Amino acid sequence: MADVMNYIADAVAGAIQYGQRQKMCDIFMSVATSTPQQQLPVFDQFAIQSDGDIGSYKRDVLRNTAYDINKNMRQWSW
């Protein structure tokens, strides 16, 4: 569950940090009266479009200590 909550927090924080706050708010407001089952795919699509990938939050991915010079996201795990 913590992995999912971290994914959600990062998607929201990333939107704010990189100037997409209004876009995020508009998307959230468009589904505000929808059911959680209807809201989740909308949020997930927003997160993916914001360079998020829930697959990168899996514990086995986060535990991987292999170094790859072509990938620069590993330091965010620390």
Distance between the termini: 19 Å
Largest sheet: none
The percentage helix is: 55-70%
Radius of gyration: 14 Å
How many independent structural domains? 1
How many extended strands? 0
Total helical elements: 4
Q: Low-confidence stretches at least 5 residues in length (pLDDT < 50)?
A: none
> Strand fraction band?
under 5%
What is the string of helix and strand elements? HHHH
Shape: elongated
Q: Quote the average pLDDT.
A: 78
Structural class: mainly alpha
Protein architecture, described:
The chain has 78 residues and is mainly α. The mean pLDDT is 78. The protein has four helices and no strands. Helix content is 58%, strand content 0%. It starts with a helix and ends in a 15-residue tail after the last helix. The chain has one domain (2-77). It is elongated and about 45 Å long. It has helices at 2-17, 21-30, 36-49, 59-63.
Descriptive labels:
78 residues; mainly alpha; 4 helices; 0% strand; elongated
What topology emerges from the helices and strands here?
Blueprint: H1 2-17, H2 21-30, H3 36-49, H4 59-63
